[in-house]
Amino acid sequence: MWCASRPAPWLVSRPYVAGPGYRCGVPQTTGPDGHLSRDGASRAVALALAVLAGAAVVAVWWFFVTTATGQHVDEVAFEGATIGRWRLAESAQSVLDVVSVPFLVLVILVGVLVAVLRRRWLLAVAVGVMVGAANVTTQLLKYGLFTRPELGVSEIETNSLPSGHTTVAASVAAAAILVAPPRWRWLAALLGALYTGATGVATMVGGWHRASDVVAGVLVVTAWLLLAQAVVGTGGGARRGGARADAAAATGRAARTTRLTVHLLAIVGVGAGLVALLSMLVISQADGESRTELLLAYGGASVGVVGVTCLAVLAPLVLGTRELRR
Known about the structure:
With about 325 residues, the chain is mainly α. It has one domain. The protein contains eleven helices and two strands, in the order ββααααααααααα. The protein is globular and about 55 Å long. InterPro entries: PAP2/HPO, PAP2/HPO_sf. Keywords: Membrane, Transmembrane, Transmembrane helix. This is Phosphatase PAP2 family protein.
């Protein structure tokens, strides 16, 4: 049986060979033996990680918002952010001023344009859906689903989780990671992590958000990014021969740089996470009234935000650069 996209045998002088992972021009997730192909396995991993990131959002809200211990740790860090705020407020405000609705629309348009120029039509749709859905999800969770019970810990009882500004910044980073060619995805991941982390910490410096709000915002975007990768393919939704062309253009230096970036993000992410966890354990048993305790809580929370941001871009980076390992 001949596929509509397969040329007739009398029109070619050599056997027709479809692109890798394609049959009749349609992406395949199973190999000839019926088992999951490498791309299919990567999609399954991306989907599983997306579900895990979504569950982590709920877990962060449950612990830091609905339990007394979580509120105490978060509140001490929130109070610690007031120390030296006058020195950092202007720089933090400069970072936060970038975030706006026009800026978000511009990011979507640029991301879609890049995908279209690469002839990745499904990817172009996925970029717009991902960025829009992540920001809508944050607003629905903050104002519709999540509530903040009054436990006598903090004076501000209005729920502020997840952080909208952090969600915008993280969705910008996610769009860049999703549309970037595999050989440049390491750079998109690094710059995205820096911008997201800077925005998240800036909201804490300005007293706009607690650390848990920032972490939840990052996780919301991570869930949608991984879901987008599961749909379009972890290689960026390559068309026939696209993955092979990207791999041919990717140099050995790009592959080495990607591996170095992965290792760097993993080390910083895990190390920062352990420091933040230790800080949380200490503050959970302290009154949180001394300057030392306030600084420890604030420093631990800031480091924790950096750690979560690094780990958040690590998974899509590893999944999205599989072509470089072929």
